[in-house]
Every structure is written in C-alpha cells, then in structure tokens.
C-alpha cells in the first residue's frame, strides 16, 4: 500500500463530528417518519440547509443544532452524547464500518 | 421579577453547545497544567483563537475540534460525550449551577 493510501485510510478512520452529527439527526428524523421539509420548517431552517447538515457538509452553529434538536423532540445534550458514542464506536471497530467506509471512498 | 429578567433566565437555562465545549476544553487544558500557547501550538491554531473557543465565542469547525482534542490527549468522541453530559447536567440542575450562572450574568 502506497503512503498516500495509508494517509487516506488514516483520514477515513477518523470521521468528523459533523458527519456523525448529520447521520444522527437524519436517523432521528427518519424514526419520526418526517420529510426534510417538515423538520426544517419547525426548526426554522431551509430544507436545503438541513439536507447539507444531514450529509455532514456543514458545521452548523450551536443555535442551529439547538433548533434542529428541539424540532426533533430531543436536546442538544442528548444529541452530543449520541454523536460522541457513534464516533467512539467507529474508532473502536476499524474492521467493520471503517473498512467499509474506506472501500466506499476508494471505489 | 420583570419579564426581561425571566427571558434572560430562560436564555441562561439553555447553555449553547459551544459554551460547554469551550469550558470542557479549558478544563482539560488546566488539568494538564498547560498554557493556552502550549495547547494551541500543538493543535496548529493561534492562541487567540483557542482562547475564543474556550470562552464559547466561536463555533469551531469539526477539523479544529479534532485538532484541539488530539492536542489535549483525547478524542472528538470523548469530548462530545463529556460536553453532552455537561449540558444534560445543567438542564437538570436549575437550582444550582444555572442559578449561579444567572447571578454571574446579572452581576
């Protein structure tokens, strides 16, 4: 494996906070059976912006995370704990999800 | 108590993520007995910027939180879990720390 590939794997092995935050918020929305527009409207953000947050493209401000969390019936504290556990689980299971992520990026 | 005071108390009762993130990172740095410049240098950020993060003035990007967390010998996941518990504790104990915060703001 070339050094560049190793570097890439290292980056993949450390998912960013915004990526797992977005995935968690999307999971919460799906569990409620809501469309992006439903949640975005209650949170006071645009559908497009919420979509970008869910895909981990944006680091939302604390105010936006608060608004979206409340719109999803939860709190910023509970969201942070859940996202932290997602990140911790990913860091501890390099043989499963992280490898899958690396393959997905390499494809 | 006047309505404005109630509104202020309401704001104080919902601390923002960046405020508790900053307080937690500052606690971690203090436990290591480091100066702002020490940690900032290893994280690759300016001392002034780390100071603003610690005071909850800035919502740092996921990359910056990652760099500061690593510089403090921890991980983004563990930081998020700790910050989430700080926020949850504050929300559950309005008679103690939140009142102290309200008094501090009113002073």
From TrEMBL, chains A, B:
InterPro entries: Cro/C1-type_HTH (IPR001387), Lambda_DNA-bd_dom_sf (IPR010982). SUPFAM superfamilies: lambda repressor-like DNA-binding domains (SSF47413). Coiled coil: none annotated. Transmembrane segments: none annotated. Residues 25-79 form the HTH cro/C1-type domain. This is Helix-turn-helix transcriptional regulator. It comes from Gordonia hydrophobica.
């Amino acid at each position: 494996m070339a050094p560049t590939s190793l570097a890439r794997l290292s980056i993949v092995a450390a998912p960013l906070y915004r990526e797992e935050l977005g995935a968690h918020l999307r999971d919460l929305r799906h569990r409620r059976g809501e469309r992006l527009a439903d949640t975005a409207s209650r949170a006071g953000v645009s559908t497009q912006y919420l979509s970008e947050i869910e895909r981990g493209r944006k680091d939302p401000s604390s105010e936006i995370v608060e608004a979206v969390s409340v719109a999803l019936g939860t709190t910023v504290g509970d969201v942070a704990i859940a996202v932290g556990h997602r990140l911790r689980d990913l860091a501890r299971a390099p043989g499963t999800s992280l490898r899958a992520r690396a393959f997905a990026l390499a494809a």
